[in-house]
Write the structure tokens for this entry.
Amino acid sequence: MLNRAALKRKTIFGLAGERFRPRKDALDIIIPVAAKDTACLKEAITAARRCLRHNIGRIYLVYGGERPRESWFVSKGVILVDEREVAPIAKSDINYHPGGRDRSGWLYQQLIKLSCDQLSSEEHILALDSDTVFTRPQRLIRNGRVVLNTSHERHEPYYRMIRYLFPDMPLYPYSFVSHHMLFTKTYLCEMKRCLERDGRKWWETILDNLDSRETSGFSEYETYGNYMISRHPAKVRVEHCLNQSFSTAWIGRLWYIRLRHPLIKTASFHAW
């Protein structure tokens, strides 16, 4: 198992030992995945490499439980990382059971995404949900501005949480829950520093303000998107995510989805 120092060395230095130099339009990708969420994982990785018009460096597959044995991931240059090497807290230390339902794992994956700066040496890191596939070519960085995709998936508890975390921050009228988010490391770290108050770590501030009665009480995408549009509006451009949801039965018919829905940018496959 790699420790954090080893992960950083592996990230910064290439196979020849030369120091890795971030490229202007380059990005790494991080995909947290649980054993039950692997249905369209290969399609998600393949489509990201094919559709994103960027220099894609490393793709980190952050797994929980048993290490994936698929040689396919290695052949595609995917780096397998144990979630315990990235997460700021052990999953067992998260007590989130609204209505008796265990939602600790759901929250744990969000903390992993917000810790992506621990893995990547790139300035831009794409957090991608494992059930989401890009369906047409696109650029997420244009003219020095990062695309923030929005949706209509507004969920009021997310906004209540943001008001606790950033009381003076205005809220954007659309949702940033779009099943992926391109983080800019500089501003992600800045946001986390803003959360480190009263002697608490950033993740402690999140957990301490979480409403334990809400089944879905926090969104990393919603929080970061609102932070960026409020604090650094000149660094982002807002677009609609143009995402369409499908059942997992449609994964094998991606060709038909691309033909039948040429305008959508991503497709998400949910186990209904």
Residues 26 and 54 are 6 Å apart (CA to CA). Confidence is low (pLDDT under 50) at residues 7-22. Residues 4-270 form a domain with the Spore Coat Polysaccharide Biosynthesis Protein SpsA; Chain A fold (CATH 3.90.550).
